[in-house]
């Protein structure tokens, strides 16, 4: 009897991610991942019943590796607006890399794969929005009183409402490849901080 290769979901994902980087997400197959891992196709299916799930997790890994943990933590002494400026700069570079390496390939995927990929992207973006809320809450210089009446009507905390607005403008600026976010950041610097 031969030795069985030991495999884990993490090892499969790492191999998948490397293959996607080399040949694109549309060319990823369960068979190619099994070969790269030195295991049977059935071993891969034990962890990933569909190619869509495998591709989606590889895209999720892109976002995890591209969006470093430091990106979501306000530096000591960094106010919320400065944090947003740094975050936007990092996101612009990440999105540029994503468009260059992944976007056209992902458009060629079947609808199930695209749906799974979108779910992973949304999880990464939800993480960013939570980071915005935390940065707002930790910035003692912000005066959120002006937002409290709007937030109560929406059922949100002021920090959540502001984070949703900021994230929405950042996303639109990234989609349109424009600098509209700079106007919002300038307005925030004037309106949020007591002089």
Automatic annotation (TrEMBL):
Keywords: DNA-binding, Transcription, Transcription regulation
Any Pfam family: TetR_N
Gene3D superfamilies associated with the record: Tetracycline Repressor, domain 2
UniProt cross-references to PROSITE patterns, sorted A to Z: HTH_TETR_2
Matching InterPro entries: Homeodomain-like_sf, HTH-type_TetR-like_transc_reg, HTH_TetR
Entry's transmembrane regions: none
DNA-binding region: 29-48
SUPFAM superfamilies the UniProt entry points to: Homeodomain-like (SSF46689)
Positions of the HTH tetR-type domain: 6-66
Molecular function via GO: DNA-binding transcription factor activity; transcription cis-regulatory region binding
PANTHER family linked to this entry: HTH-TYPE TRANSCRIPTIONAL REGULATOR BETI (PTHR30055:SF234), HTH-TYPE TRANSCRIPTIONAL REGULATOR RUTR (PTHR30055)
Protein name: HTH tetR-type domain-containing protein
Classification of source organism: Bacteria, Bacillati, Actinomycetota, Coriobacteriia, Eggerthellales
């Amino acid at each position: 009897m031969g030795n069985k290769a030991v495999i884990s979901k993490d090892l499969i994902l790492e191999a998948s991610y490397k293959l996607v980087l080399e040949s694109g997400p549309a060319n990823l197959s369960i068979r190619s991942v099994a070969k790269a891992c030195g295991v049977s196709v059935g071993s891969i299916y034990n962890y990933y019943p569909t190619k869509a799930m495998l591709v989606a997790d590889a895209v999720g890994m892109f976002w995890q590796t591209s969006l470093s943990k430091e990106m979501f933590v306000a530096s000591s002494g960094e106010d919320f607006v400065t944090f947003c400026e740094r975050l936007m700069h990092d996101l612009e570079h990440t999105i540029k890399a994503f468009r260059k390496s992944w976007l056209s390939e992902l458009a060629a995927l079947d609808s199930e794969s695209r749906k799974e990929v979108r779910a992973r992207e949304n999880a990464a973006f939800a993480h960013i929005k939570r980071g915005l809320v935390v940065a707002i809450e930790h910035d003692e210089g912000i005066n959120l009183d002006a937002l409290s009446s709007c937030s109560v009507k929406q059922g949100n905390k002021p920090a959540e409402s502001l984070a949703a607005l900021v994230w929405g403008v950042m996303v639109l600026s990234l989609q349109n490849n424009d600098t509209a976010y700079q106007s919002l950041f300038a307005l925030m610097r004037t309106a949020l901080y007591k002089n």
